[in-house]
Amino acid sequence: MNSMTLTSNRFQQGVNRLLQSRVAEILSYPHGVDRYLEVFNPLWSVNEVRARVEAVRYLTNDSVTLTLRPNHNWEGFIPGQFVQLSVTIDGKRQTRCYSPANSLHRTDGCIELTAKVHANGFVSRHLREQLSVGDVVILSQADGEFALPEERPEQVLLISGGSGITPVMSMLRTLCDEGFAGPITFLHYANSAADMIYASELDEIARTHDNVTLVRCFNNDGEQGELSGLFCREHLFTAAPEFAQATTFLCGPPPMMAAVEKVWEEDGLAERLHKEQFTLAAPQIESDSAEGEVRFVQSEKMAINNGATLLEQAESAGLTPESGCRMGICHACTCRKTAGEVRDIRTGEITSGEEDIQICISVPVGTVTLDI
Amino acid sequence: MSIFSNLSAEQFETIGQELDAIRNREMADLGEEDATYIRTLIKRQRRLEIAGRGLLMAGFLPPAWLAGVACLSASKILDNMEIGHNVMHGQYDWMGDPAINSKVFDWDNTCTNTAWKQTHNFEHHTFTNVLDKDHDIGYGILRMSEDQEWEPRFLFNPILAGILATFFQHFVAIQSLKLEDYLIYKTKTKEEVKAEFKPTWKKMRKQLVKDYLLFPALAGPFAPFVFAGNLTANVARNLWSSQVIYNGHFPEEVEQFPESVIENETRGQWYVRQLLGSANFEGSRLMHVMSGNLSFQIEHHLFPDMPAHRYARIAPEVRAICEKHGLPYNTGSFMRQSLSVWKRIFKLSLPSKTEGDSKKGPLNGLRAKVVSLTREPQSENRKAA
Ligand SMILES: Cc1cc2nc3c(=O)[nH]c(=O)nc-3n(C[C@H](O)[C@H](O)[C@H](O)COP(=O)(O)OP(=O)(O)OC[C@H]3O[C@@H](n4cnc5c(N)ncnc54)[C@H](O)[C@@H]3O)c2cc1C
Ligand code: FES
Q1: HSE on the CB side for A318, CA within 13 Å?
Q2: pLDDT for residue A2
Q3: Counting one residue from A and one from B, how many pairs have CB atoms under 8 Å apart?
Q4: Which residues of chain A have pLDDT under 70?
Q5: ipTM of the assembly?
Q6: Three-state DSSP string of B173-188
Q7: Tens of pLDDT along B198-209?
Q8: Where are the alpha helices (DSSP H) in chain B?
Q9: Alpha carbon of B169 to those of B81, B209, B244, B358: distances in Å?
Q10: B341: CA distance to ligand 1 center in Å?
Q11: Collapsed DSSP state (helix, strand, coil) of residue A367
Q12: Which range has highest mean pLDDT (A4-13, B31-40, B374-383)?
């Protein structure tokens, strides 16, 4: 098996070099080699990451766990990072970010993504209801600053809420696989025990690793957790009294993250807290105070500024600008603004003049002209 | 302008609304069906191309050569017409797939994506059949309208039309240069032409190297067979696509317009100009696919960014709207439209008879013609063949 993989790897490298040559480029001009390779196998590509769905599991009632085998273009990830996953729904490509939850040391070349299924979630519902073994999805390379440092910290505190468990689960699994000896506290918030993703595996890890302390906190009354209710300072004193010495990784819903951040800020520990946001806190649409108009030059369209993001306003005006994450991560939506002022909904920062902006997180302040 | 004075402002308004209603309904319905259609077609085209190029490698065997040329010609035609032309119109941009997006897609043709979108998507589709504005009226080479002043060079109209058809991809590639402005009218300098030609030449070179050097070289001693096969396929594509395009705008009854019509043109008036300036032809499903559904040139000009496979479905409705408002709906068999085009090409190689003559140019004759059409809705050029 091993020697076979080795030869096939070498063969693949050779073929790949050939396919990326100038000759191959001209022979396949202007479409590119990939457009011909995919006729034979949808997974074949010289530089795009595509993955085959190897397994689909339902660990809870409102989640789906995918085992994906990326093609050889996949460059790997650092625990905590995310990938952009694209699927086609009703003819249209949809892209969302998901954080691999598997250990870095997984040996079968697969990655594992777990998505919580939101009631009206377009992509997450599709993943649970439509995706099946054998399907091919498109991935980006892994990205993101939220990542386990190369030099492992001495003491680790992982705090997560809901589906925010995935990146920290990857960190935990990786550290355990490495035989990490320092203390790890895993503090997780979920509505109920039945909703908790990876519950039994976490139990098992805590049982077999003396250095891992698992603290579950359920919001619903009467649930069997170590704690209950929403995050507060008292939880922290109970679960991780030495939190000030730990390097902390946090991922969860915006209100929970805000509560945790506040404690760290008050204690002057902000730089020891690493955080990842899955969702933008909903921007307030200030339709009352919105002024001016949005001009789309290339499409010769115009809209009265309604205070929503430029991406949403462009879409309501009938344009189809590119977008991906819709939350300022992937840069798929970057457009040239030729005039006007915009506010970044994440930071509140206002910028003006000619510049490239991400229209998914930009709200016009007065009249704005976009070159789309 | 005569044609427009025969329809009231309200009528234009109504026509605009009725056509908009079709457009909105269809565009709201975009989805899986369209995506599957174009993906399947692209897959078939790529398979044909791979098969064609493969067969030509064994081109020293006559059946393989013939089959190879057939596959490669079909592939190039599909690539340029139903795929390239339509994808570059942005018909599938909503899918969010970079491989099927008008910003990125490029076709197996020497014309660049950028130049094409300028001369075709913008100039031709906006100024359809407006003299001096729509360069597709004769491509700066032919005399295709009586209102184009006759020059002695137009004696060669039919020969030039043949040459244009044979080397169509190259003419289209250099169309944006407006070479006649340099060669004949001297309104453009050599330097300007050179600078504009640069990106086109870059693409032409790659296409030529691919078809006439690299692929033949792959066949080693049999290179000449591959060379000849690729040449034949390119010419077959050129002849076919040029005829399809001629048929869309040059049949005799198709109207041309003076520049003045586009001043303050309303949406309804724009729609009517598209209707009057285009012609369909009829045929089998295969014929429609091979012509990129430009056999529904009328529907295409009304809704250039609607996935073209939908035109067949909406054509009866468009036709009904035309009949209701007494507008001509120009259609006929492929043969009939082609003959009509060539008749026009031959006729216009000679100077037009003086104004006021019975055989008037379309512009002079417009009023009379439209009035007569309005009176007899079943007039000849509106009838199905
Ligand atoms: C860096 C990063 C990593 C991520 N990793 C994961 C992951 O590992 N697992 C995972 O499940 N998700 C993850 N997400 C979130 C994921 O990308 C999608 O946003 C989520 O799956 C919802 O997409 P959807 O298409 O189903 O919902 P949409 O159709 O986009 O939204 C439908 C509705 O759900 C609401 N909604 C969307 N996301 C959330 C949320 N997180 N919490 C509450 N309401 C929400 C929206 O406000 C909206 O009302 C990550 C996001 C980012 C930015
Ligand atoms: S859509 Fe991803 S950054 Fe805007």
Answers
A1: 12
A2: 60
A3: 61
A4: 1-4, 281-288
A5: 0.86
A6: HHHHHCHHHHHCCCCC
A7: 999 999 999 999
A8: 2-5, 9-28, 32-57, 62-78, 86-88, 113-116, 125-126, 157-166, 168-174, 179-183, 190-209, 215-218, 223-249, 267-276, 285-290, 297-302, 311-324, 334-347, 362-375
A9: 12, 15, 13, 38
A10: 58
A11: strand
A12: B31-40
Which chain A residues touch B107 with a CB distance below 8 Å?
30
- Looking at the CA of A99, name the nearest ligand: 1
List beta partners, residue A83: A98
- Per the CB < 8 A criterion, the answer to whether A299 and A316 are in contact is no
Domains and CATH numbers, chain A: 19-139 (2.40.30.10), 156-277 (3.40.50.80), 293-370 (3.10.20.30)
- pLDDT tens-digit series, residues A286-310: 666 788 999 999 888 899 999 999 9
Does ligand 2 have an atom closer than 6 angstroms to the CB of A314? no
Instruction: Tell me which of A129-133, A198-202, B193-197, B277-281 is least confident.
Output: B193-197
The closest ligand to the CA of A324 turns out to be: 2
Residue carrying the six token digits 């009304």: B302
Chain A: give the shortest CA distance to residue B281, in Å: 30
The span from the CA of B111 to the CA of B103, in Å, is 15
**Summary mean pLDDT of chain B:** 88
What pLDDT is recorded for position B357? 43
| Cα of B108 to nearest chain A Cα, Å | 6
**Number of C-beta neighbours around residue B29 at 10 A:** 10
Whole-number pLDDT of residue A3? 67
